Amino acid sequence: MKFKLNLASRLYINRRALHLGFGAVIGLLLVMLSLNLMNTVFLQGHIKQLKTYLKTYPAPETLAGGTPANLGRPLEKVVEDIRFANDILEKRRFYWTGFLDQLEGLAADKIKIRAIQPNFSERTVRMSGLAANLRDLQQFLEKLSADASFSDYFLLEQGQTSLKEEGRMPREAVAFTVLVKGVI
Q1: What angle do CA 170, 174, 180 make, to 5 degrees?
Q2: In the chain, where does DSSP find H-type helix?
Q3: Entry pTM
Q4: Are 119 and 125 in contact (CB under 8 A)?
Q5: 155 vs 174: CA distance, rounded Å
Q6: What residues form DSSP beta bridges with 173?
Q7: What is the mean predicted confidence (pLDDT) over 48-72?
Q8: 127, 160 in Cβ contact below 8 A?
Q9: Would you state the pLDDT for residue 61?
Q10: What DSSP character marks residue 3?
Q11: Which of 69, 111, 112, 144 has the fewest CB atoms in 10 Å of its CB?
Q12: Bridge partner list, 175
């Protein structure tokens, strides 16, 4: 039996198609690069145009005589409306669902959060709640310390209280108030 097939004598890769494919990819990348560069130059020109446009308008203080006290009632009303809108936007920006989800993961079954009072100006949240006993409160506070977003907290109040439920005997619980900073 005589074998006449020599695998080293023939090319099995179509180099012409391979080079054509590489050329097409490089051409596409060059077109995308040139479009990005043109867009960057266009945006830089637009920014310069806007800056010169803004320089032509004087500041509101100079229109009112140079002092913020002379701005007048209409401009003060606009500034007050802007501050009010910014406060609303700041309060809406807070992700309540995520906050409550994290809090639910930290609170044990025997911890009941009764009130959550956010203070957006100081970026704090005041939480009042009940714990079944002191050990449950201690475990809750340890979990707060372990979580990075709740680690800056202060236990403001703690005390025994008696809970009365309809048809049941009164039972003792631990009432507490925690102030958490930096959550908002």
Answers
A1: 145
A2: 15-55, 60-63, 73-93, 96-106, 134-146
A3: 0.51
A4: yes
A5: 13
A6: 161
A7: 71
A8: no
A9: 62
A10: -
A11: 69
A12: 130, 159
